[in-house]
Amino acid sequence: MHCWKILNIYKQYGLTRILLWAVIVFILTLCSSYLLFTFYYTKPFTDDYLWLFALLFIMMYPIHKGVHYLTLFDYRKDVNAQWEVIYDWLPTLHLRITEILPKNRYIITRLAPFIVINSSIILGMLVLPRFIHYGAILLAYHTAICVIDLLYVKNLMRSPKESQIEETKRGFEILVPPNVR
Predict the structure, then answer these.
(1) Going along 58-122, which residue ranges are E strands?
(2) Strand partners, 96
(3) Does the pTM of the predicted model rise above 0.70?
């Protein structure tokens, strides 16, 4: 196996641009989901269970990381969790895997929180339409969290089919067999 490409989203795009995209995605998702669901449900909303909404909002990031971890459950011995603080106040959790993963497994791991959590939120908005305003905010917030995952998937889709992904200190190395260029 040889390295086809080193993928480091933060160096490739820059943290400022990623955060800007996340804010844009948040606003677009919030507006479009709220408008779409209010066509479906026109009765007044309720502010009951604000405490539950606040708890879900705070727990969204750990839940997101938990879904990532569940997709890597059979690699659990090779997954290291590490907290890092960025901007001197924002804690982030990094799941580092020391094992080489097939490209398709890595893509599934990256997309799983987006599919599972967003589907759950949309289902909740359909089942409990009185809380569409809460659901729209949670959906937009989680979609903004998923921007980095979607950028990784976008870059991985261009890699050869037989690729393997290895995490290093420089980023993610896309490894391919010697006969692939």
Answers:
(1) 79-86, 90-97, 101-102
(2) 80
(3) yes
